[in-house]
Task: structure prediction
Amino acid sequence: MRFDLNAHWTFKMEGHLTDGVALCLPKHNLDDAGVPVFARRWSLFGAKMTYNF
Result:
């Protein structure tokens, strides 16, 4: 979704449901014991505020 708040400010939100672990690095997916664990199905939500001049 995109919201143009005025001529300069834009607010964007997006979401994804993902099935897979391609390009997920093991060093960023460690459990408490330090063992790599990958969740096959995961979700992502992003929000961004932009100022254009």
Q: What stands out?
A: The mean pLDDT is 93. Strands lie at 2-4, 9-19, 41-51. The first strand starts at residue 2 and ends at 4. The chain has no helices and three strands.
